Amino acid sequence: METETDYGYVDGNAAAGPLQELLAVEPTTVRGQCSTCGRTSMLADTRVYFGGPGLVMRCRGCGSELLSLVTTPSGTWLDVSGLSCLSIPADPTV
User: Fold this and answer.
1) Where are the alpha helices (DSSP H) in 6-85?
2) Which residues of the chain have pLDDT under 50?
3) Are 86 and 32 in contact (CB under 8 A)?
C-alpha cells in the first residue's frame, strides 16, 4: 500500500525508453539459461516447434519449454517462464 512517504519511484512509463532499446535487438543472439537444467545458449541454438497457436522454443539439452509465443487478433503473449535469465549482448557481433 502506498503512502505519501513512499519516495524514489516513478510509474512504469519511465521504463519505456530502456525497454525499447533492450527489445530492439537481433533475438537469435540473446542467450538464455534453462530453468530446468541450467544450460545456457543462444536462442538460435534452441529447438523451435510450430503447430498450434504459436511457437515453442525448447532446450536442446533437456527438452524443457523455454519460451512460447502466441499471437491472436487480440494481442501477443510471450511466456519466458522456462528461462531463469536472458543475456542480451551490447554488441551482437561479439
Assistant:
1) 16-23
2) none
3) yes
